## 1
Amino acid sequence: MKLHDLRPAAGSRRERTRVGRGIAAGRGKTAGRGTKGQRSRTGSSIPAWFEGGQTPVHMRVPKLRGFKNRFRVEYAVVNVGRVESALADGRLEPGPRGAPATVNAELLFAAGLVGRLDRPLKILGGGELTHKILAVADAFSTGARQKIEAVGGTAMTLEVPEAAPPRQRRPSPETAVSRPTEVSAQTPDVGPVAAEAPEAPKEGPGASVPEGPAEAEPKPRRATRAAKATTSKSDREPASPESPETPA
């Protein structure tokens, strides 16, 4: 291996394509730029955001105009002054025998004070109120609540019940995580152990009490394999009857 034997790895280097060197080279004549046009001329550099002369996107998009609140609540509104005029004109029925007149969305719609029932009702504090009313609505302004309570009326706000929590689905067998089974150590039931009665001491003047633990008796020796085989063979073979004597 010498210096002139060194070569780059196959495929790591690629020669530059030479354009404008004849038809046989593959990039002759127009040199890959096509026939005529802005991009075929020398010095053409069109930015990537150019849209051919039409209004570009950064000018079409509205700017500096605030935003649309996705959580905006559209109310059907009515002022307490209009409620007062409706009570005076008889479009709303006053309460019997000095009782407060009931005001809600259905009665206001029937009287023509609100134009739709598909929106929540909100009572505002514009105008003056002299009649005592029992107003039931989804929302009240601070001024409207103060004017209703000032004449002895009541402002009741409807409460929307909370949505029930979603039911939890049972995990599928594939996604269920197997938990290790706890194995409790079970202790076998052991009955009460009878206490061994102490050995009675020997009576008599010559009786001596041995000191220390008594020596254990020696265990009998196990029979050898040959003795076992002989014994088992003799146990298995029945006694054969005596053979008759052959005559001489």
## 2
Amino acid sequence: MSIITRAIASADREARYLSNGELQAIRDFFEAGPQRLRIASILTENELQIVQTGSQRFWQRCPYTPSNSGNPTFRASCMRDQGWYVRLIVYSVIVGDIEPLQRIGVNGAKEMYTSLEIPLRNLVEALRCLKEVALEMMTVEDASEVAPYFDYLIQGMMP
């Protein structure tokens, strides 16, 4: 839930107007909007490169994994999922909240990968590789803004 939705829901539950602190938090959210949109653009425009380079790094680190077994379906599925995670991070950066990652990317996904016998430690390493590649494309300031979203996802998928 975005800061705006949280503030409004809280004020409405208490039948009051937004406090000065809540209004300032909303103001700060809007002022950070250009940075969030810049980060989202970098990730969106470079999604294919992030996934391809991140996958290559992952396969160098974890050469014995289902997605690197020579099975084209496994490889395509791995890369598709990595692109999906980059997209979820874009959504989260735009709204300034982990809710899309939590709701769509972590809750249930861990159980799904386990049931498909995908080694979670490999998934976590693949996500770390995506993070590395994505952050290399950004300024230090932008990287520090997006890194916690990757970290949340990585922590949520830990075995």
## 3
Amino acid sequence: MSIKFGLLALVVGALALSVPASASPALGSSQEVAKRAAKRGAKDAAGDAAGDAAKKAAKNAMAPDALDLNTATEEQMKKIGFDEETTKKVVAARPFTNLEDPKIKESIPADVLTKLEGKINVKPAAK
């Protein structure tokens, strides 16, 4: 979304530069219009980054009843939607450090991970 808005801001800014200030007195000079458009684009980009960080934090938050991939039995994994092959890959790849662990992404298809967001977690292995 921010890329689209940024491009829009550039187009608006470019168009504003070609319009004489006398043609749009309510908007101000073309340079002022371009500056305002660029500022809005930067603010939206920052807002999107903050929103993405919040989404990631929510995704990684552990639900109290979420299934821990480090300790789950094969039966438990199948019960929440893993097929036989994925279950075996998960068991063989243990232990995991977190949900972003590359071994998880290699073991579990992306569509399954998306479907199970909030239903699975990874608690660090006890030392």
## 4
Amino acid sequence: MDEIIITTPEKIKEIIATCLAEYLRESTSTDPPYQDDEYLKSIKDVAEFLGCSSTTAQKFKNKHRHIFLQVGRKFMVRKSDVIDALRSKSRCYKR
């Protein structure tokens, strides 16, 4: 496979566009990329999952900001990431 291929920039752009179109067509599906029950989507959900108050859940969110996926006011966090954060030795909030 030691071949030299001579092409133009336009042909490279066309090849890339074709590959991207194929990838997007194949990767687009009706199924969401996650299972709804794997994620918590509100402070109330986090509080219920942890068995604590909304205030404590908000403190947990502030401390472990890196595990929360947030866009604007909406966020999601995996239940498994919450459990892993609880198992870590760091405190959730200052006393």
